[in-house]
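Q: May I have one protein plus its fold?
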Amino acid sequence: MRKRTAVIAGVAVLAIGGGVAYAAWSSTGSGTGTVSSTTSANSAITPVSGSGLYPGVTVDVVVSIDNPNDYAVKVNSIADSSSNVNGGCAAGTVTTTSTGTDFAPVIAAHGSQQYTLKAKMNADAADACKSITFTVPLSAQLVSAAS
């Protein structure tokens, strides 16, 4: 009989102790998190190739645009432009246009992409414009390529 009473008492203590362990306190948490945005860095446009100009002709000129940012960008446009005074060659002797340029490629973070523009020399270009490398200031409009 004692053995049976001891087993019943042990089971009762175990059941009560198990209930106490289950009745532990609980809580919830709340608060805030913070995140900051990066900044943008300006891209650079550099010449790759372009030659063969003479009065009245249009040639391809290839430029490269880099992306120094931590995110991808897309070129929306490259502004049309014209050459500066160069020796005895008048300003505006050479013009560039981005008409027909494919701006679809996205420039990956820290990458670069080449674009083909058209350069044209005026039909009335002076003899002073022979054998000259023309510098044409270019500017591009880029946006983040968020998906």
